[in-house]
């Protein structure tokens, strides 16, 4: 595990990068956390401190089921899902990339590194965000967990993309803000880079560092040479 200021990775054996979307390429997690907290407080519920990290790997559909089960919200799962997605869709239409993310992606393309995206979010939100940030056309594959009936609690989506790209896991780097997702990807043979979110606690940062080969706060801290 490495958290030095500038990480330089030799690109000889690296042929592709798989990026997560929320919390990795874009700063959407703060808005999502505020939405979830306000929704629960408005309904007389007390949110858990790790609420956002329980919801994110499940996606909106799984997140709605989680909220219904854990917090016993009066609305049914579909109504919870609709509330969440209607709010967040507006956010994604004006979302911005994290610092230096655009330049890093451009540098990968210039070096002939293939890039793909693996998200637990809804496809229409991911596509809206990618178009808003001007990077939609730069990805070879854009896959969501819902499309292949999985979540980020396993390495299935990373393995799926590895097979689609006809590459071995060890030829791919996964960039994730989820400690669990990076842990599973690492166990499956992928190199992993943890991307710190603004809303992370100290313990969450340590968990991400422990589960990743490298840790960055933004994309100016890493390059392939």
Task: Write the topology of this structure.
Elements: E1 7-9, E2 16-19, H1 29-42, H2 51-55, H3 59-71, H4 77-92, H5 101-110, E3 114-119, H6 123-133, E4 141-144, H7 156-164, E5 172-176, H8 179-187, E6 191-195, H9 202-211, E7 214-216, E8 222-224
Parallel strand pairs: 1-8, 2-3, 2-5, 3-4, 5-6, 6-7
Helix pairs in contact: 1-4, 3-4, 4-6, 8-9
Structure description:
- This protein is of the alpha/beta class.
- Helices cover 43% and strands 15% of the residues.
- The strands form two sheets. It has a six-stranded parallel beta sheet with strand order 4-3-2-5-6-7, sandwiched between helices.
- Strand 6 (191-195), helix 9 and strand 7 form a beta-alpha-beta unit.
- Helix 1 (29-42) runs antiparallel to helix 4, helix 3 packs across helix 4 and helix 4 runs parallel beside helix 6 (123-133).
- The model has no long low-confidence stretch (mean pLDDT 93).
Which terms would index this structure?
225 residues, alpha/beta, six-stranded parallel beta sheet, two-stranded parallel sheet, 43% helix
Distance between the termini: 19 Å
Number of strands: 8
Into which percent range does the helicity of residues fall? 40-55%
Would you tell me the structural class of the helices and strands? alpha/beta
Residue-averaged pLDDT, rounded?
Answer: 93
Shape estimate = globular
Using the CA coordinates, give the radius of gyration.
Answer: 17 Å
Percent strand equals 5-15%
Q: Order of helices and strands, N to C? A: EEHHHHHEHEHEHEHEE
Task: Describe the strand arrangement of the main beta sheet, using strand numbers.
Answer: 4-3-2-5-6-7
Give me the number of helical elements. 9
* Low-pLDDT segments, ≥5 res: none
Largest sheet: 6 strands, parallel
């Amino acid at each position: 595990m490495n958290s030095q200021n500038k990480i330089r990775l030799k690109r000889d054996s690296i042929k592709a990068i798989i990026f997560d979307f929320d919390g990795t390429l874009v700063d959407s997690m703060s808005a999502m956390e505020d939405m979830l907290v306000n929704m629960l407080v408005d309904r007389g519920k007390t949110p858990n401190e790790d609420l956002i990290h329980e919801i994110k790997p499940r996606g909106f559909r799984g997140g709605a089921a989680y909220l219904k089960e854990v917090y016993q919200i009066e609305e049914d799962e579909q109504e919870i899902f609709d509330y969440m997605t209607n709010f967040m869709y507006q956010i994604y239409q004006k979302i911005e990339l994290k610092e230096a993310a655009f330049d890093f992606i451009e540098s990968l393309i210039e070096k002939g590194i293939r890039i793909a995206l693996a998200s637990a979010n809804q496809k229409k939100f991911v596509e809206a965000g990618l178009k808003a940030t001007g990077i939609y056309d730069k990805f070879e594959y854009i896959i969501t967990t819902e499309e292949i009936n999985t979540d980020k609690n396993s390495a299935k989506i990373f393995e799926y993309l590895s097979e689609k790209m006809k590459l071995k896991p060890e030829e791919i780097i996964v960039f994730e803000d989820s400690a669990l997702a990076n842990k599973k990807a690492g166990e499956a043979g992928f190199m992993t880079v943890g991307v710190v979110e603004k809303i992370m606690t100290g313990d969450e940062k340590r968990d991400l560092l422990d589960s990743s080969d490298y840790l960055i706060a933004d994309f100016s801290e890493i390059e392939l040479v």
